[in-house]
Design a protein that fits this description.
Blueprint (H helix, E strand, L loop, with lengths): L12 H4 L1 H10 L12 H9 L1 E2 L5 E2 L7 H11 L4 E5 L6 H13 L5 E3 L11 E3 L1 H7 L6 E3 L1 H8 L2 E5 L6 H4 L1 H8 L1 E4 L4 E4 L5 E6 L11 H4 L2 E5 L6 H19 L8 H16 L18 H18 L6 H12 L5 H14 L6 H10 L1
Parallel strand pairs: 3-10, 3-11, 4-7, 7-10
Antiparallel strand pairs: 1-2, 5-6, 8-9
Helix pairs in contact: 3-4, 3-5, 11-12, 11-13, 13-14, 14-16, 15-16
Length: 363
C-alpha cells in the first residue's frame, strides 16, 4: 500500500538508521562474512556507537558490556543461532532488530512467538484456494519469514521463543542443524543460502514458559542481557530512549528533567533489588518486573500528561499515575508493598515530598 501521504509511526531499524548504515559501509574495509552488509566490527560499532575516521558520529543503540555484543555478533558469523535471554525490558528485541538490520539490511523477517502458534508459522503454509485448484505446488505454498530468510541468505528473528509450544519449538532442530527445510508435500527442500541465521529472544520471567529441549538449546549460543549495572547507566538509557521516542510521537512537552528521571529510576532499582541504593534499608519487592523499558514507558506517559493536561514540563504529579500503574499489578500484595515503600523511604527523603504526596493520592 502506498505510504506517500502517511506518517509512519515507527520505522524499521534499517530505515530509521539508514544514514548510519551507509556511512559505516563506506568506511568498513574489514572482512565481511558472505551475505553480510557490514563486518562484525562494523556491526558492533553500529550497536555501541562511536566516531568514524571521517568524523561521522554513530549513535549508541545499546548501553552495556561491549563483550556481550561481540559474543553475539561472533556467534552469528558461525553456524550457531543466537538466543538473547533476560528479564523483560533488558532490550532483547531492540538488540535483535538492530543486529538483523546491520547484518542483513532487513529486520522484518520476524516470527512472533505465541502460545497458540502452529508449525506453519515456522515452516510454511498454503494458499488454500490454489491448493484446491492446483494441488500441492510451489505456487500454492506460502513461505514463512524463516523460509524467506533461508532463500535470501538473511537473518530471521523469533520473538518470545519460550512462549511457543514445545512441539512447535522442535521444528527448529532440523532447520538449525541441517540448514534446510524439507517440504514433503512437494518432495523437495529449501536449503539455506550463506548469510542465513536465526536470532531468538526469550525471557525467564514469563508465566507459562515452555522450556527449551536440550536438543534445541544446543543449537543456540545463549547471551544473557542484564539490567544496567549502575543508576547512572540506567538513567542515561532512559533519557536517551525517551528523547528519541518523544520526537517520534511529536509530544509538545519539554525534555523531561533529569531530576525526575533519576527519581523514577531510583525507585524502580530499589524495589527490584529489595533494598535502598545505599544498602541501609531492606524493602519488599512487588510482583512486577520494573524494567528499564517500563521506566521509559512511565516517563513517556508522564510527558504526554504534562504536554496535554499540565504545564508542559514533567513533574511529580505527572509521574505518579504511571509509577503506580507500573508497580501495582497485584491489587493487594503490590499495593501494600508500594504503600510501605512510600512511608519508609520516599517520605523520608529530602526534596521528595512532592512525589510522596502525588503518589499517595493515586493509591
Amino acid at each position: 500500500m502506498a505510504q506517500e501521504n502517511k506518517q509512519i509511526l515507527r520505522l524499521h531499524a534499517e530505515q530509521a538508521y539508514k544514514e548510519e548504515l551507509e556511512a559505516l559501509a563506506k568506511v568498513d574495509d574489514r572482512h565481511k562474512p558472505t551475505g553480510w552488509l557490514l563486518s562484525p566490527w562494523g556491526v558492533v560499532t553500529y550497536l555501541l556507537g562511536g566516531k568514524l575516521e571521517n568524523g561521522f558520529e554513530i549513535e549508541a543503540k545499546y548501553f552495556g558490556n561491549r563483550r556481550l555484543m561481540e559474543v553475539a555478533v561472533a556467534t552469528l558469523a558461525t553456524d550457531r543461532a543466537l538466543l538473547l535471554m533476560g528479564i523483560p525490558g533488558t532490550g532483547k528485541t531492540w538488540v535483535a532488530e538492530h543486529l538483523a538490520a546491520a547484518i542483513s539490511g532487513d529486520s522484518t523477517l520476524l516470527v512472533q512467538g505465541t502460545a497458540g502458534m502452529s508449525e506453519d508459522s515456522m515452516r510454511y503454509g498454503w494458499n488454500y484456494a490454489k491448493l484446491l485448484s492446483e494441488g500441492p505446488s510451489e505456487g500454492a505454498l506460502t513461505p514463512s519469514p524463516i523460509m524467506n530468510a533461508m532463500n535470501d541468505g538473511k537473518i530471521a528473528r523469533i520473538e518470545e521463543l519460550t512462549r511457543i509450544p514445545s512441539d512447535v519449538q522442535d521444528t527448529l532442530i532440523t532447520l538449525l542443524s541441517e540448514k534446510m527445510l524439507p517440504i514433503p508435500e512437494l518432495g523437495t527442500e529449501v536449503q539455506a543460502n550463506r548469510g542465513f541465521n536465526v536470532i531468538a529472544t526469550a525471557n525467564n520471567k514469563d508465566k507459562g514458559v515452555n522450556e527449551l529441549s536440550s536438543a534445541l538449546r544446543r543449537r543456540f549460543n545463549t547471551v544473557v542481557l542484564p539490567l544496567p549495572d549502575s543508576l547512572e547507566e540506567e538513567v542515561k538509557i532512559v533519557r536517551t530512549r525517551v528523547e528519541k521516542i518523544g520526537r517520534t510521537l511529536e509530544l509538545p512537552a519539554d525534555a523531561p528533567p533529569i531530576k525526575e528521571i533519576k527519581r523514577l529510576v531510583t525507585i524502580f532499582r530499589e524495589l527490584r533489588q529489595g533494598k535502598t541504593e545505599d544498602g541501609r534499608t531492606k524493602i519488599k519487592s512487588p510482583s512486577s518486573t520494573l524494567s528499564t523499558a517500563e521506566a521509559i514507558s512511565v516517563i513517556n506517559s508522564g510527558q504526554a500528561l504534562a504536554a496535554h493536561f499540565g504545564s508542559g514540563v514533567l513533574n511529580a504529579h505527572d509521574l505518579a499515575a504511571g509509577i503506580t500503574g507500573a508497580i501495582i499489578k497485584d491489587p493487594i500484595q503490590d499495593r501494600n508493598v508500594w504503600d510501605e515503600y512510600l512511608e519508609t523511604v520516599v517520605k523520608e527523603r529530602k526534596d521528595w515530598k512532592d512525589l510522596y504526596r502525588s503518589c499517595k493520592e493515586m493509591i
